[in-house]
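## retry 2 of 3
previous attempt timed out at serialization; input unchanged, resubmitting
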Amino acid sequence: MGETSMYNAKVEVAELGNPILRAQAKKVLSFVGGEAEDEGLACIVAQMREVMQERNGVGIAAPQIGISQQVLIIASRPNERYPEAPFIEPVVMINPIIDVESSQTEKGWEGCLSVPGIRGYVSRAVQVSVNFVDVNGASQRWDLEGFPARIFLHEYDHLIGLTFLDRIDSVADLISENELAKR
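## retry succeeded, writing output
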């Protein structure tokens, strides 16, 4: 008989309407020997990476896989959904805190694994500085701009109970992915 682990189980993506997407995610509290004790951080990160890659995403947050923890991944790369995206190696950010957010904003189309089939034209800061803890428990500070800043802010919203739908100016800023592809 095969062993069944949380990692081997098919991970579902929480979609719009799931209460976890409206909740404040909990901080990852303790690190022992470079590994967070909270709910098996390595397993959570592995599941997040797998779902993000399967769904061709450029970022993901733990609440999207049903886990209320302040963990997100940004992984900008050109792909079918975002052909102009710059390449950034995937980075795991734990307990991220926005230090500085530029007042200059730019609108851009965003999609979300938790809001399938819909894109929104969302205004986001063009630059953001973020403090976070990496998977080894080390404090980090990153300055992001352009598309990587947009990815971070989108994923950060999942940690504070928001989706891109909360950031649009009006329903006129929504479009189906199929319709957007025709343009």
